[in-house]
Amino acid sequence: MKILQMIMMIGLLSLLSGCTPSPEPSANEEAKAEATIHHNRTEAKQAQEEYIRLQEARNK
């Protein structure tokens, strides 16, 4: 009888834990991520432009 209760308890716990919603990022974390993405894109664009300028200077 104890084994059946254990199996039922484990089944119930696994069912309940599988039905919980996934955590959502907070608005603050999302804003930080957006700012970081924007900063990285800006840096990448600047580096790309500098690379193009250096290539043009080298080819002259």
Point out poorly predicted stretches: none
Please, what is the oligomeric state? single chain
Q: Give helix and strand order, one letter per element, not per position.
A: HH
**What fraction strand?**
under 5%
Count of DSSP strands:
0
The description of the largest β-sheet is: none
State the helix count.
2
Gross morphology: rod-shaped
The span between the termini is 88 Å
Average pLDDT across residues?
A: 87
The percent range for helix content is over 70%
Alpha-carbon Rg, integer: 27 Å
Structural class: mainly alpha
Chain-wise SSE layout:
Layout: H1 2-18, H2 27-59
Quick recap of the structure?
The protein has two helices and no strands.
Describe the structure.
It is built from 2 helices and no strands. Helix content is 83%, strand content 0%. The longest helix has 33 residues, at 27-59. With 60 residues, it is mostly helical. It is rod-shaped and about 85 Å long. The mean pLDDT is 87. The chain has helices at 2-18, 27-59.
